[in-house]
């Protein structure tokens, strides 16, 4: 697999952070777990349940040494989300994410979660704009950046 990076761009590979000083192409010759900087969500942006789930799965990829703690968070957040949402696309997506995580396919799970964020944004927008809608969103899961 070949990945091209721009000058100053970072990539997270097997828990290590690499930053390139000039445009470069990396070629991975074996299995590797990586995440491009452009796909990394900062903790302060994990303000909705789907974004929190993204952040949890992201931690599985970025810090393989802390996968146990991230799995515990996933095991708490995921069932709560299944009970909360009624949208069929989100429920189906969450079931697919659970299956991917169970098979150790965190990268694919992350992509699937990313595809559901716009659906969640639409749902939350409808709730916020409805008469008597919520004025403040309180996420169900609290986590630290290093969790």
Automatic annotation (TrEMBL):
Keywords, comma-separated and alphabetical: Bacterial flagellum biogenesis, Cell projection, Cilium, Flagellum, Repressor, RNA-binding
Q: Which organism is it from?
A: Jiella flava
Single GO biological process annotation from the record = negative regulation of bacterial-type flagellum assembly
InterPro entries attached here?
Flagellum_FlbT (IPR009967)
What role does this protein play? Answer: Has a post-transcriptional repressor function in flagellum biogenesis. Associates with the 5'-UTR of fljK mRNA and promotes its degradation.
Q: Which residues form the signal peptide?
A: none
Q: Which Pfam families match?
A: FlbT
Family assignment from sequence similarity:
Belongs to the FlbT family.
This protein is called: Probable flagellum biosynthesis repressor protein FlbT
Q: Which gene is this protein's source?
A: flbT
Molecular function GO terms recorded: mRNA 5'-UTR binding
């Amino acid at each position: 697999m070949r990945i091209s990076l721009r000058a100053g761009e970072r990539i997270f590979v097997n828990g290590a952070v690499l930053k390139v000083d000039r445009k470069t192409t990396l070629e991975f010759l074996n299995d590797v777990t990586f995440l491009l900087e452009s796909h990394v969500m900062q903790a302060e942006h994990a303000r909705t349940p789907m974004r929190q789930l993204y952040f949890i799965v992201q931690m599985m990829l970025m810090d393989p040494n802390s996968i146990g703690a991230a799995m515990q968070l996933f095991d708490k957040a995921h069932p709560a989300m299944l009970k909360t949402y009624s949208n069929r696309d989100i429920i189906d997506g969450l079931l697919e994410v659970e299956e991917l995580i169970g098979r150790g396919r965190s990268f694919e799970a992350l992509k699937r979660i990313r595809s559901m964020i716009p659906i969640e944004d639409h749902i939350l927008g409808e709730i916020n704009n409805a008469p008597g809608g919520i004025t403040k969103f309180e996420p169900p899961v609290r986590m630290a950046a290093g969790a």
